[in-house]
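Researcher: Going back to the complex we discussed earlier. I've cleaned up the inputs and rechecked each line, so this should be the final set. Can you rerun the prediction on the complete assembly and write out the structure?
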Amino acid sequence: MTLRGLGRGISIGKRCFSSFTEVEKPPMDGKPINLFSAINQALHIALETDPRAYVFGEDVGFGGVFRCTTGLADRFGRNRVFNTPLCEQGIAGFAIGLAAMGNRAIAEIQFADYIYPAFDQIVNEAAKFRYRSGNQFNCGGLTIRSPYGAVGHGGHYHSQSPEAFFCHVPGLKVVIPRSPRQAKGLLLACIRDSNPVVFFEPKWLYRLAVEEVPEHDYMLPLSQAEVIRQGSDITLVGWGAQLSVLEHACDEVAKDGISCELIDLRTLIPWDKETVEASVRKTGRLLVSHEAPVTGGFGAEISASIAERCFLRLEAPVARICGLDTPFPLVYEPFYMPTKNKVLDAIKATVNY
Amino acid sequence: MSAFSAVKILPSPPITARSTPKPSFPFVFSSPSSPTAGGIHRPAAAPLSSSPRPLRAVSSHVLSNEQRVASHSHQDEAEVTREEALDLYEDMVLGRSFEDMCAQMYYRGKMFGFVHLYNGQEAVSTGFIRLLQPGDSVVSTYRDHVHALSKGVPARAVMAELFGRTTGCCRGQGGSMHMFSAPHNLIGGFAFIGEGIPVATGVAFSSRYRHEVLEEASPSGGLDVTVAFFGDGTCNNGQFFECLNMAQLWKLPIVFVVENNLWAIGMSHLRATSDPVIWKKGPAFGMPGVHVDGMDVLKVRAVAKEAIERARRGEGPTLVECETYRFRGHSLADPDELRNPDEKAHYAARDPILALKKHIIEHDLANESDLKGIEKKIDDVIEDAVEFADASPLPPRSQLLENVFADPKGFGIGPDGKYRCEDPKFTEGTAQV
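Model: Rerun complete. Updated structure for the full complex:
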């Protein structure tokens, strides 16, 4: 069973998976690899299957600071896999130009904290290219990948989660995987999607997350959330590395008899409102959790949308367990983060509302 | 290239030129009095600048079609007194020992995060910063421990900051990459490359404004100078060029110092830059550009003196490219596999501390035991710094919420007058922050 071609991803969305370190019934076999290896495989396949795909960014030539691009330069040549100078704005604009000419530009921004100089190009050019040229040109071939999120010791500028800024831009897609298997399928789908995509990779999981990942080419659907765990008392929504925190919280409250439904949003915009709504209609309670600061984070959008759609069904206010409204701190990072205990407190408070 | 520029773009010097120490290039200066400067429209001289003086390190040619490399005047090197030489030596040894201790502490788990060490580049920091007056400012990058030390921030404060303690220079908030010190006019530590350069430009503007508009005299007798340090990779970033333009346009008292160590993590400067000769980018914007051997503290000091005094007199910015090298990897997490061992060996042979030591001994400025005495003193300073940092307390939890805004009550302190993080509801996620 092989899957080729655009647009036909496997729908493993509705199956039940437990945590990514133990897969109960894998539909596909694969070797256990970690996140950066899965990303690496996806990039190898992307470049193999499309002769006009390019990977570039700072230090990608030797494999990148997180080893995601290992072996690409040797295999596909320096014409297709190359280092850029240190200019994020230039990298993004250059990628948009490449994409506008029909190429698949896979740009790497070394840390999501450094994406802000590129923000102008991404928001003002990439997102609006098709719209303002009346569909004469588009930069659908553009994929920007960037490691994001806390890593334990990153401090102010190696730990940020800027996804909310991009979610506010019509014309862009924002995708965040939670595990190696998801990452490979989602990244291939993003690269082949005909819209510009910003793909954030949770850097904490690069080495820590290990999962069995099939070696062949496969894609996962965008804009489809995945229900990882069925439950009946409360719906938990998250993405990226935060899901493992949510999972541990689920396991703990299960001992108290609270049954949680856990949803991985996967694509932040355009997000799968139907799946989340269906779940909240079942449970009546919602908790959203992300690492980015709570005010103006993407949890606010989910909360507002669900409140609109499920107002009468909700038994308790939508809870948001997120980072604090401070710059990402150096010391006391655990205190800033939406930890398992904070999630537990909120689950109990919401269920007992 | 602008049609007004009188600089001819020369072919880049051969790459092999790096393998032998070469004399410094002279200042490349487009002087209004030069007959060959034709076509450049020069803005009116700022009130403070005197008529352009010949600079000591220049061989008197200005822009012309043939740019000749003049040999560096050797008499500069001997013109340093015993006190100055020992001060330079002590500062460089302090920088080196401190960084070595950082590495030890890191591998023992006492400090964490991303730490970038300065070993090998001490001549640049010492050569420039020891010439500065207290009112002058320094803006640095993430490789800023030694800049902080040279500027006068006590080793204790820097070490404590690295350990994340309250007694650190930023109270433990910033860590390795964000050293700030108001009393010493150290305006940061920037993790993000290039971000410090516009900040430095603003600081320089403020200095000029204070002097000329507000007419506040500075103890230095001229303008307070700002020195911005950054690397070769940064010279490909837009912010760098924007600031060269602004600084020259407004004749700001700033010196742009490029610490060209040839590598930006794993990217070789020569492979990332269309014209790797960075000092030439200065004249493109109308300011002097100069190249100096950054492994020789006396040469750096001579060039720095010129550049700083120019700025102080109000003659505007200078771009100084220092050819230097970092002996360790980019950061303590960098395995440093990409650089050629021959290249490393070449620069290790040009260790600035050993070079200065040799110079001091040869010119009879001090003897071995004086230098040993200095090294011992520095060892004690470093040990004391580590003990101090170890014994210092970690910040209180309330510090997490402080200083987000100016008004602590607006954020960090709740309506009951206590810090919000001390609210028992805090972990519930339902406490408003």
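Model: Worth noting: Residues 69 and 394 of chain B are 55 Å apart (CA to CA).
Researcher: Good, that matches what I expected from the previous run.
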